[in-house]
Amino acid sequence: MALADKRIMSGLSRIVHTIRRGLQINIDETGFARAMDNGAYAWERGLGEIISLATGTNNHDATGNAIVPADSILHAISWYITTAVAGAGTLTFGDGTDVNRFGQATTVTAGAKDVTLGTPWLITSAMTIRITTSANPTAGVVRVVPHYTRYAAPTS
Known about the structure:
Elements: H1 3-20, E1 24-27, E2 33-37, E3 40-45, E4 49-52, E5 59-61, E6 67-68, E7 72-86, E8 91-94, E9 104-105, E10 113-123, E11 127-128, E12 130-133, E13 139-152
Antiparallel strand pairs: 1-2, 2-3, 3-13, 4-13, 5-12, 6-11, 7-10, 7-13, 8-9, 8-12
């Protein structure tokens, strides 16, 4: 059995075990699973957002899926340059407080990618991922994916 098949079987085994314990497993429209028990859940997510780098500014904020919600633990940020960045030699990935919190891209050609792993970070209020460019770009598109776990308390 291939390693990928073993991982799939291991994941299915965990889901079956969870169902036997009486918890409900929901798979949402994006394909992410969450185990629920009277409203309590833990939800793994790694859904990205494509950010078109605007001309005339060097701060480019996520507006949708790359916003990490409150009550989450952020594990990593990954990124992939879909359209080469023109007019700026580096990109940094951060938030509104620390522009380099998640690292830097010094290769800004299409196809460049990386994953920034770090110490799990508790997000107590929603956090926007910000790409800061070294100069105002004239072109560029970047997919940014925050990888986090979100938690909720039981409702009954």
